[in-house]
Amino acid sequence: GGHGGWWGQAGGSPQQLAERYADLAASHSEALRQREEREWQNVRLQQENSRLRLENRRLRRENRCLFRQALLGPGPGPGCPQSADAGAGEEAEALRAQLGRLQEKHHRALQHLRRCQAAGAADLDDGDLEELLKEDEQPP
C-alpha cells in the first residue's frame, strides 16, 4: 500500500481519520466556548460583587446616619448623605445597569460572530446580528 507513515499506523481509512479529526475539532470548539462562557460569567460575578460591595458601604453609612438621627434627633449629621447625593446615586445605578445590558449584548454579538466564523462565512446569518442591534436601540 501507498499509506506509509502515520496514515498506516493510525489503523483507519482516510475517511475515518477525517471523521476523528472533525470530532476532535468539534470537541475543542465546545471546550473553548465553555471556557469563554465561564470567563464571561466570572467577569459578571466580579462586577456584581463590586456593585454589592458599594451598595453595602452605602447601606452601612445610611444605617449609621439613621442611628445618629435616632439618638440625636432629626436632621442630617456629619457625614450623612444629603438628598442630592441620593439622586446622584440613583443616576449612577441606572448607568451601571445600562452598562451591564450593553456588555451582555456585546457578549452575545461576539458569541454569534464566533459561531458564524467557526461554521464558515457561508453560514453567516445577519438576521440574528440585526436582531441584537435592534434590541440595543429599544429602551430598557
Summarize this entry quickly.
The protein has 140 residues and is mostly helical.
Describe this structure in words.
- This protein is mostly helical and 140 residues long.
- It folds into two domains: 13-73; 91-139.
- Helices cover 81% and strands 0% of the residues.
- It contains four helices and no strands.
- The protein has helices at residues 5-10, 14-72, 83-119, 126-137.
- Helix 2 runs antiparallel to helix 3 (83-119) and helix 3 packs antiparallel against helix 4 (126-137).
- It is elongated and about 90 Å long.
- The protein starts with a helix and ends with a helix.
- Keywords: Coiled coil.
- InterPro entries: CCDC89-like.
- It comes from Anhinga rufa.
- Residues 35-112 form a coiled coil.
Instruction: Report how far the terminal alpha carbons are from each other.
Output: 67 Å
Q: N-to-C SSE series?
A: HHHH
Low-confidence stretches: none
**What structural class results from the helix and strand content?**
mainly alpha
* Biggest sheet record: none
Instruction: Count all strands and give the number.
Output: 0
Number of domains: 2
What is the average of the pLDDT values? 79
Strand content: under 5%
Helical amount = over 70%
Shape: elongated
User: Number of helical runs?
Assistant: 4
Radius of gyration: 27 Å
Organism: Anhinga rufa (African darter)
Protein name: TUSC1 protein
InterPro entries: CCDC89-like
Coiled coil: 35-112
